[in-house]
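Incident review: delayed structure delivery

Summary: a single-chain prediction request sat in the queue longer than the usual turnaround. Root cause was a stuck worker, restarted by the on-call engineer. No data loss occurred. The affected request and its eventual output are reproduced below so the record is complete for anyone auditing the incident later.

Affected input:
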Amino acid sequence: MSTENQKEQIEMQDKMISDALDKIKHRIVVFSGKGGVGKTTVSVNLAYALQSKGNKTGLLDADITGPNVPKMLGLSNHLVYYHNRFIPHVCHNMKVISIGNIIESGQPVIWRGPLRSRLLCQFLGEVEWGQLDYLVADLPPGTGDEILTITEKMKPDLAIIVTTPQEVSLVDSARAINMAKKMNVRTIGVIENMSGLLCPKCGTLIELFGSGGGRRQAAELNVSFLGILPIDMEARKMADQGKLIIHENKQAHFSTAIWEIVKVIENVFYDNNGVPGSRELESFDKIDAYSKRSS
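Output delivered after worker restart:
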């Protein structure tokens, strides 16, 4: 293929992405410096919470080599590609796209970076997203090609960095925060996940990974702190069954914590009258319900 043809294809793809994004009011990317911190759990429950408040919401699984969104939502059907467009699945009234619904279960995606980035561009520009209030992108861990592609093309309003409280996780989440800054994401916030386990027997809060690391890091790096999420055995069991705890049990500790975080996130996009604005996120200073019960 000639250089001129390649240039035309890139311009055409960028135009398709721009046209798609023009129909999406707010774009959120969910980062993690390392794997295993619960990034996908946060992404799917956050997207559902936004949708359940009356927002038209899309969920993009941008983790090409480790797509877990379909498993957590119980989506097993293959994607439809019709007239050169992907037709996203609809789950809990959310539009969902993932390579996990293209490849066979258990098959590895052994692709180099450029091919993964190309598919992500297709997921942005060649998907029937339609009019959306929010598009949430669940990014892969680290600071590699896919994150560069999504951040450059998607132009997010908000980057959420998910970390656990211990130092080994904070080292990596600092890299994710600084990458978001270098990519000029307007607003950056930190969520501290797996911040304590409420003992089902006695109600004592057990800090398996410590606590306060996410809040401290947000202050040190001058970004917003969105809140804390507990370790919740019920959330883990439901995710394995393709169910969302925030849908199945709205009173669970994890669910109530997600709702509080959503309130903080909405603050950056709308004022008290529901008018679109550009306010910065405020710090999350509430003491979560599960923390109160541990005292």
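Verification: The chain has a mean pLDDT of 88.
Action items: add queue-age alerting; document worker restart procedure.
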